[in-house]
Amino acid sequence: MFVRILPPEVRSRIAAGEVIESPADVVKELIENSLDAKATKVEVEISKGGKRLILVRDNGTGIHPEDLEKVIEEGATSKIESEKDLMNLSSYGFRGEALHSIASVSRMRIRSRFFQEREGYEIEVEGGKIVSKRKVGMPVGTEVEVSDLFFNLPARRKFLRREDTERRRIASLIREYAIVNPGVGFTLFSNAREVLSLRPADEVERIEDLFGSGFERIRKEIGFLKVRAYIRRNVPQGELHTFINSRPVSMRGLKDFLRKVLGYKTFGVIFIELPPFMVDFNIHPKKREAKFVKERKILSLLREALGGREEEPMPYLEQEVPRYETEFKVIGQINNTIILAQRGDYLYFFDQHLISERANYESLGEKEGADEIACRSAIKSGEKLSEKEMKELIEVWKNLKNPHVCPHGRPIYYRLHLKEIYDKLGRSF
Ligand SMILES: Nc1ncnc2c1ncn2[C@@H]1O[C@H](COP(=O)(O)OP(=O)(O)OP(=O)(O)O)[C@@H](O)[C@H]1O
Ligand SMILES: [Mg+2]
Fold first, then answer.
1. Which of 172, 180, 252, 356 is deepest in the core (most CB within 10 A)?
2. Residue ranges of the chain with per-residue pLDDT less than 70
3. Helix 295-305 vs helix 252-262: crossing angle, to nearest 10
């Protein structure tokens, strides 16, 4: 056998198979681009389940006329500049390969009017080659039309599913993006019939528009993790919609874990937010899965946030706080709610209610309903405390098994290094 270097268009077609396997994959990439362009309206049209035609129209910022021909080139992106930016992603796109891939396996027409321009431009592309370019009158935004997907890869075309299977996949994909972009209106037309229409809404309305009302709501922030969940328990068949940093994800491991925490007969929409550097989406060709940095920690925080019992004190804060270095000096009480004290170079702000609640909770043990009893019998906020009482409460805090968060996951205290205050005052510390 002789080694040969494949021509670039063949390589593109092969590589495209990683990202684009079906009409739904095309729709996903085009919708993501519309959302990245800040569209508030996304219209999708398909015919024959997207096998004959897919059209996505948005009212986003549009593409600058000078960029229009570039967007179908490999690695053409306006969203990141260097590898470093991958650590701080806020857009769906970052590879600059989606349009290139789609273009190489279809006939494509892109029309776009940039928001600062008076007219739009249109290019036609066939199998990755631009065959025409001209001016067109159109509103600001972008319209991408993809027809005859895989016309130049007959083997792959044969493997496309039946029309209604593809149509269903496209509809559920649009719903996923709609859940996590409630402010955007979405419509889907299939064979010129409207099959989905979602008006711009807020998160709750959008979820109710899609799934009806009657959800238990959870909203938690623990350390670096934020979770919002909408939950209905004891449904005949469980179903979870999971999102990480505004991206729909389908991760087996994560879903199995959440099912265990929430129960198998739970319907749930779960939004997980983490600092971008803790999540790597670049491990998956379609970005449908992510790798967590510090996965065990994240899962244990998730369990805590979603109501699973805490198994151990949160290790992530523990190393940070040298617990018995020097004594506390009580400075006073703020709004009869927060105890202010100094220890070493730190100012501590304690939530008096939460210290007391945590202490009750720990003395009650892991009994059913312990958190409620702990809360009811605790010192309230708004209660005036004497200096002696404040000192006692801080002593109690020092002996807590978990001095960091209350039974519901709220932080018990906040501390500030004096240097921060010195810096603000322009003094050196
Ligand atoms: N609907 C749109 N509105 C405005 N600009 C768009 C639109 N679609 C594509 N673009 C421009 O074309 C570029 C290429 O799009 P493409 O989807 O190929 O790459 P990407 O979104 O940057 O990265 P990825 O491959 O990860 O999706 C984008 O970076 C963006 O500048
Ligand atoms: Mg993209």
1. 356
2. 1, 308-326, 366
3. 30
